[in-house]
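Appendix B, Record 12. Input sequence as logged:
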Amino acid sequence: MEPPWNGEVLDELGLAGQAARELAEELGIGAAAEELKLWVVSRGENGSVGLTYLAPALPEAMLRAGFAAVAAAERIQGREPELDDIALVHSPDELSGLAGPHADYLEPIVRRFVGCC
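Logged structural output:
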């Protein structure tokens, strides 16, 4: 998340706006802050705080196309994309097969999501 600009308050709508900006920047998915729902707040082992928002559901093909477009645009501008891949998981069991590091609070969030949705 970015710090507030020009002394703006970082309230619930501001946090949702930050989440919407991240969706657009990293996945190429446009969503208004009002469309996002704060779903869970977690704390990582290193003291970090994670805010997880639920966004309107989209087809997998649309998510992958948005991500590919953002990554391609970054590379055209001579920059490496912040994310090199996305993984869509359907259960916590799939997390152990993912390459690379991931946040320590990811598994509990996936468990919660699978159990509720």
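The chain has one domain: 12-116.
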